[in-house]
Write a structure and sequence with these properties.
alpha/beta; four-stranded parallel β-sheet; Rossmann fold; AMP-dep_synth/lig_dom
Length: about 350
């Protein structure tokens, strides 16, 4: 579900199928091209699945990203799906999410099988060099092992209700969507909601697993502390994309108990390490150990040796020397930032 809409998995796929048929017949003119999704709203899930159904490359992007980077990264003939006014940086074809919703409601058409293979293209954060479009590779056996390990370490099951604060243009947001589609868990997609709205969703939707940035949980913690209202119970909290400070962990533990996990990853490799609640408590600042199928080390040092320096990662079928600096201590990984300390 999203903040304003609810779908069963069957309804979600039927809506995406109808949107795909409408795009193919009335917007694309039966001509395959990349689909670029600009925004964080609920219609973006439908657009993503519709592009996948057509076997087209799809690129979710942050509407607040640098226009020059977007102009350089997005093909001129790509079809842009946008929420508000069409952005000035793209001069190619475009369709609004309102029009996409109309197509999904009225097309009623079915599609034959496609031989094309859809790829997801994400704009990297620039932590491993200049920001650029990153094309996902075929997942392969190693990628399957990595995704399965992440899914198992978090422990999402069909009984869970998962709150996703992370938008689809981030790898972690896509991985949560994939986990819920895989298991049948309920996904509540709310990347643009404020702290009060997120807490209400946790309570009203009986959320069991919540995932987002530490800054988002800090705002929720502050609101709960100021109002002295009880925290909605959660079985698991997964933090990503930002450093998780020990002081925040202490505050969150008082509100939700020892349920916090801390993850590390990047666009090029996906999530590569995840600290368990026990590791977060006993080893402040750690992102835990690499997932199966992943190797992490310090440049210039033997793998798993206690060392500090620039981090390299091998996962997602590629090796990346990151812009992050950190430490390895007793096989636990600590990320200290983007500058050597």
């Amino acid at each position: 579900m999203t903040v304003n809409r609810r779908y069963t998995f069957h309804q979600l796929w039927r809506t995406a199928e109808a949107a795909a048929a409408g795009l193919y017949l009335h917007v694309l003119g039966r001509r395959p091209r990349m689909i670029v999704i600009v925004g964080e709203g609920e219609d973006m899930v439908i657009a993503l699945l519709a592009a996948h159904r057509l076997g087209l490359d799809v690129m979710p992007v942050d509407p607040g990203a640098d226009p020059q980077v977007l102009r350089r990264s997005v093909p001129a003939d790509a079809l842009l799906v946008h929420e508000q006014d069409k952005p000035d940086w793209h001069r190619g074809p475009a369709v609004s999410t309102a029009r996409l919703s109309e197509l999904a409601a009225t097309s009623g058409s079915s599609l034959g099988r496609t031989k094309r293979r859809s790829r997801i293209i994400l704009l990297s954060s620039g932590r491993s060099g200049a920001a650029r479009a990153h094309v996902t590779r075929p997942i392969g056996f190693g990628g399957v092992v990595q995704l399965t390990a992440l899914h198992r370490r978090i422990g999402i099951s069909e009984r869970d209700r998962v709150l996703a604060c992370t938008p689809l243009q981030h790898g972690h947001g896509l991985q949560l969507l994939a986990s819920c589609l895989l298991t049948g868990a309920k996904l509540v997609y709310a990347p643009s909601s404020d702290a009060s709205e997120l807490l209400d969703l946790m309570l009203n939707e009986r959320i069991t697993v919540a995932s987002g940035k530490p800054s988002e949980f800090e705002r929720m913690a502050s609101l709960l502390e100021e109002s002295r209202r009880p925290a909605p119970p959660l079985r698991r909290i997964v933090c990503s994309s930002e450093p998780l400070e020990p002081e925040l962990v202490e505050r969150m533990n008082k509100l939700w108990g020892p349920v916090i996990m801390n993850s590390y990853g990047m666009t090029e490799t996906g999530t590569v390490a995840l600290a368990t609640p026990e590791q977060v408590l006993r080893h402040p600042g750690t992102v835990g150990k690499p997932l199966p199928g992943v190797e992490i080390g310090i440049v210039g040092s033997p793998i798993w040796a206690n060392a500090e320096g620039r981090i390299w990662v091998r996962g997602g079928n590629r090796t990346v020397i990151t812009g992050d600096f950190g430490r390895i201590r007793q096989r636990l990984i600590y990320v200290d930032g983007t500058e050597a300390r």
